[in-house]
Design brief:
It is a single chain. The chain has 518 residues and is of the alpha+beta class. It folds into 4 domains: 28-138, Phosphorylase Kinase, domain 1 (2-Layer Sandwich); 142-310, Transferase(Phosphotransferase), domain 1, CATH 1.10.510; 373-435, Trypsin Inhibitor V, Chain A (2-Layer Sandwich); 443-508, Trypsin Inhibitor V, Chain A, CATH 3.30.10.20. It contains 12 helices and 21 strands. The chain has helices at 95-112, 145-152, 158-164, 166-177, 237-253, 273-282, 294-301, 307-311, 322-352, 384-388, 391-396, 454-463; strands spanning 3-4, 11-12, 39-40, 43-51, 55-62, 67-74, 123-129, 132-138, 142-144, 190-193, 198-200, 373-375, 398-404, 413-417, 423-425, 429-435, 443-444, 467-474, 484-487, 494-495, 501-508. The strands form 7 sheets. The protein has a 6-stranded antiparallel β-sheet, covered by helices on one side. A 3-stranded antiparallel β-sheet has the order 9-10-11. It has a 3-stranded mixed β-sheet with strand order 13-16-14. A hairpin with a 4-residue loop joins β5 (55-62) and β6 (67-74). The radius of gyration is 31 Å and the shape is globular.
């Protein structure tokens, strides 16, 4: 039996629409976001694909151009309340800050729309609706760099990484010329496309990429620069240089960058010394000591400049010296002498029977130990500290650690990639997800509950994950039957919904007893 797709309206006979590719069974709806299938200015919103303190991104359908896009809605969760239909409702007292940050959002994406580069997510349009601003972005087919590394199962070589990052380095130079800093370059914001090119996504207003008290900021441990964690420091182009250098180090070594890691003696098996030197100057903790532009960083990374030449950019005189002129004059004589020497050397080598040692074996020129195949153990029965204290494990593998809240004890391994019993090479990156224990989420009790119907208050608390019980109290003229007269926890107080039950007092049919006056 056929029906219409809830996204594009095409006739469909199965769950996935063959025209637009959208599912007819959306994911669970997130509170405060647009409903699945909501039309906004010609774009039909699908599932939420990303949500942070600045905005919410939906995979969407562009009805005019009949294509998939990303619809990015400016929606700082710390400043908005429940929607009024599709309309964004700003919390009282935060209207001015909301408008200022929304202007920053608009300015950023207006600037990005003018950037012409294969390495950037194209901005198709920018418009206002529902009391906020939307950016329409290119839908990129591919994996995040993090997902890409998991699928590869091994780091990139230095040459592979240098080739992969060439467009990204060029983009950073363009962004600097247009006075745009990203602030969130990481293995989550760089996409490797199906054509094996990389695209930088995740542009955001500055407040999302620095520690602040306005919105819920989002940083990336191992990639974000030190100044981003400091309220009193400013980020800039040098911040992006730090992040891209840390990311380059990560994909070549398989390790998460940390201060001091570039002093490790075994780094020479991953990259040449001049590249290590470039990474050192790109990741200096103090921005004043750091390389501050992509051009200088790439020159050092390619061994085309030293830090001294980078700091002193005076051009040297290109006129040939007198010594060089004399060398040109006697060059034919020198060549003849060299030919004679090489001839006698070859004859001597043949006579001694040691011709095989005349040239070094190119396969032995790099001091990279041969890896052996090993079967991966099950790390889910171990804790993070047990693994880090096992010298055998840390000498065999490189571990990429991420954390998330769970019901498992803090420090316990939740999952691993590759899976247990997979045969891998020594030196493979093992991705471990470590438990942070149960999340102690603090939720603010909503205001304005008194006098509202019970069902309305229950729906609101359910959407916030707040558990509750009801208790009947006599009705009155102020609070008629079925309305909420109050709660046992004051409005505006922060609670942990996992270990707190709120008592909702509800007016019922119990008559009010009046004591006659004598």
């Amino acid at each position: 039996m056929s029906s219409e797709c809830i996204i594009c309206g095409s006739e469909i006979t199965q769950d996935i629409c063959s025209w637009c590719g959208f599912s007819q069974q959306p994911k669970a709806h997130l509170s405060g976001t647009l409903d699945y299938g909501t039309a906004v200015n010609g774009y039909v919103a699908g599932d939420v694909v990303d949500m942070d303190g600045e905005s919410t991104s939906y995979i969407a359908y562009d009805t005019a151009n009949q294509r998939r896009v990303i619809l990015k809605e400016f929606l700082p969760v710390s400043m908005v309340g429940p929607r009024n239909g599709t309309q964004v409702v700003v919390q009282q007292g935060k209207e001015v800050l909301f408008k200022n940050l929304m202007m920053d959002f608009s300015d950023l994406y207006s600037s990005l729309a003018s950037i012409d580069s294969r390495a950037i997510q194209t901005v198709y349009s920018l418009f206002s609706a529902n009391g906020t601003v939307y950016a329409v972005l290119e839908y990129i087919k591919g994996d995040t760099l993090r997902q890409n590394l998991i699928k590869r199962g091994k780091p990139y070589t230095f040459k592979e990484a240098r080739w992969l990052f060439q467009q990204l380095f060029a983009l950073l130079d363009i962004l600097e010329k247009n006075n745009i800093a990203h602030g969130g370059i990481s293995d989550e914001t760089v996409i490797v496309t199906d054509e094996n090119n990389i695209v930088l996504t995740g542009f955001a207003i500055r407040d999302l990429r620095v520690k602040n008290e306005h919105i819920m900021y989002k940083l990336y441990d191992g990639f974000s620069a030190p100044e981003q964690y400091n309220l009193n420091r400013f980020s800039g182009f040098y911040t992006d240089i730090y992040s891209v250098a840390a990311l380059f180090y990560h994909i070549v070594t398989g390790r998460i960058f940390a201060q001091g890691c570039l002093e490790l003696k075994d780094l020479s098996r991953y990259m040449p010394k001049y590249a290590i030197q470039a990474l050192k100057y790109a990741t200096k903790p103090n921005p004043a000591d750091r390389l501050d532009n992509a051009t200088d960083f790439v020159l050092m990374l390619d061994n085309k400049a030293t830090i001294e030449k980078t700091e002193d950019k005076k051009k040297t005189d290109s006129k040939p010296s007198a010594t060089e002129e004399q060398m040109k004059k006697y060059l034919p004589v020198v060549i003849v002498i060299l030919i004679i020497i090489l001839f006698f050397t070859a004859m001597l080598s043949i006579n001694t029977g040691d011709s095989s040692s005349s040239l070094p074996d190119s396969s032995q020129s790099e001091e990279i130990p041969q890896s052996t195949d090993v079967k991966l153990p099950d790390f889910t029965d171990k804790t993070y500290s047990q693994i880090m204290n096992d010298n055998r494990l840390i000498s065999q593998f490189y571990f990429n650690i991420s954390e998330e809240y769970s019901d498992l004890p803090k420090g316990q391994v939740i999952r691993q990639q590759p899976l247990p019993n997979t045969v891998v090479n020594e030196g493979t990156i093992i991705y471990l997800t470590i438990s942070k224990g149960q999340e102690e989420v603090k939720v603010q009790m909503p205001t304005g509950l008194k006098g509202r119907p019970l069902a309305e208050v229950q729906a609101l608390l359910d959407s916030m994950g707040i558990r509750y019980v009801t208790k009947d109290v006599p009705q009155s003229r102020q609070y008629p039957y079925g309305t909420v007269t109050g709660t046992d926890i004051a409005e505006g107080v922060f609670i942990n919904p996992k270990d707190t039950y709120v008592i909702i007092y509800v007016a019922d049919n119990t008559p009010v007893v009046t004591i006659p006056q004598e």
